[in-house]
Amino acid sequence: MNDHALRADDDAAPAASPGTAPPAAARPAAAGAPPGDPGARHYTAGGLVLRRFLRHRGAMVATAVLVVVVLAAFTSIGVGPVPGWWDKDVATAYDKLGDGAPTWEHPFGQDTIGKDYLALVMRGTQVSLFIAFGVGVISTVVGTVVGAVAGYFRGFLDAILMRVTDVVIIVPLLAIAAVLGRTSDGNLGLLVLALGAVLWTSLARLVRAEVLSLRERDFVLAARAVGTGPARIILRHLLPNAVGVVIVQATLTIAVAILLETSLSFLGFGVQRPDVSLGSLISEYEGAFSTRPWLFWWPGLLILAVALCVNFIGDGLRDAFDPRQTSGGTRARGPRTAALPSGKAGL
């Protein structure tokens, strides 16, 4: 190559003046950006799920309200030996002010013997949340295991597990929970196990359907071909791809557990004295609805708030894991097309 050719090349590529951006071809692509789109931002699968969840306005409001309720319940009267910021406890009967209506000293009022109702309601919220989340964990584990095993192995084992699931489903849920709750004799741990033993069926069916659709995929067939065992395939390949179904159903199970515990406590089969739950407070003071309504409304409003918040969070998680869902207030948009001028509409 001669000097004339080198000078011609230098003249063809003008140098960028100071303070001006380099040409597009010279700018490096964003880290992780797909080829051909240097300025695009790349998200991982988890990042996309989180981004869609954060854009769900209902789920965000519900999450904030639920966090406030949980913090208030566990910091106000404390937990066990850890004291809280509220200066009254659930066991002391204070001097009753009038008929026990809400005052500055007792914002939620007082019960029939003078106990501070704010402390009682916060303790009931602690117990109800413990039961709800404990039942959610147990039912999620049982339902996931049953559904995954039935969907992967199919055949005789699938038929046995699904018939057991059908038996649990056809028996009225409240009747089974009442019988099992009666045997717990007010023990919170046994009550959680009893409720968790009846709320796993819906998740088992959903996980089974998901595993049935995944077990014939190429990555599962490849894992079998190299000699991977069934347990490893289920844990490492199938369940991670069904995590969306599991998480969404787990949140909905928590809401169902709150309402079921409330029903059992209202019927006298749930939490027993000296401990309290939101359901037992409603049951104990149902007769005061017309004369002292604050004894009924405070636990009822908290049950409603927690159940609605968990349902909205579940709705947001469902929309986040399934981009086809559009109930979160943001409409799925298709590709934009340029509008043709009116004079060229027929072209």
TrEMBL record:
**Of which family is this protein a member?**
Belongs to the binding-protein-dependent transport system permease family.
Membrane recorded as keyword: yes
> Sorted alphabetically, which PROSITE patterns does this protein's record hold?
ABC_TM1 (PS50928)
Q: Which PANTHER family match?
A: D,D-DIPEPTIDE TRANSPORT SYSTEM PERMEASE PROTEIN DDPC-RELATED, OLIGOPEPTIDE TRANSPORT SYSTEM PERMEASE PROTEIN APPC
Task: Identify the stretch annotated as signal peptide in this record.
Answer: none
Compartments where found: Cell membrane
Q: Which organism is it from?
A: Myceligenerans crystallogenes
Q: Which InterPro entries match?
A: BP-dependent_transpt_permease, MetI-like, MetI-like_sf, OppC_N
Show the stretches that span the lipid bilayer.
59-79, 127-153, 160-181, 187-207, 238-260, 295-314
Q: How does it sit in the membrane?
A: Multi-pass membrane protein
Q: What is this protein called?
A: ABC transporter permease
The protein's matches in Pfam families, at most eight in alphabetical order, are given as:
BPD_transp_1 (PF00528), OppC_N (PF12911)
Spans of biased composition, class Basic and acidic residues?
1-10
Keyword Endoplasmic reticulum assigned to the entry: answer is: no
Composition bias (Low complexity) maps to: 13-34
Q: Identify the stretch(es) annotated as Disordered.
A: 1-38, 324-347
